[in-house]
Amino acid sequence: MARGAALYGQRVPLRVDDENENHALLYYAACTRCRAMMSTEPDILAACWRCGHPQPADRRRQATVERRVQWRLLEEVETETAQGRPAPEWACVSCGRFNPLPDATCANCKRTKRLAHSGPAQQR
């Protein structure tokens, strides 16, 4: 099963502003070459999404930014939004940017929210 895929569907990390709410942390650090923000998890990105420069495997300790997220089923969130709830923002696991829920791709690194864990972004 692919990372981010749940037994019942695709999960997406949503912004959490309340510190008391259950959350997970995603860590990000700057690329050693071009300074683009990127995930510190080597199994998500082994090379920079912007310049393609390979990143050190131990970059987790170099993390400078953390994002509070709550992993939710994408289908459930889309249903809640269609029923009138405000649309939350999703966090790109590759670069850390928060994007509006209706946006299918990250405005920064162009990865899709459904395929955020699968290989390099497609350039257009």
Our Rg estimate from Cα atoms comes to 14 Å
Give the strand order, joined by hyphens, for the main sheet.
Answer: 1-2-5-3-4
Helix content: under 10%
Kindly, what is the distance between the CA atoms of the first and last residues, rounded to a whole number of angstroms?
Answer: 28 Å
Low-confidence stretches: 116-124
Number of helical runs? 1
How do the helices and strands follow one another from N- to C-terminus?
EEEEEHEE
Number of strands: 7
Q: What does the main sheet amount to?
A: 5 strands, antiparallel
Instruction: Provide the number of structural domains.
Output: 1
Strand content: 25-35%
Class by helix and strand content? mainly beta
Shape: globular
Mean pLDDT: 81
GO molecular function: zinc ion binding
Protein name: RanBP2-type domain-containing protein
Keywords: Metal-binding, Zinc, Zinc-finger
InterPro entries: Znf_RanBP2 (IPR001876)
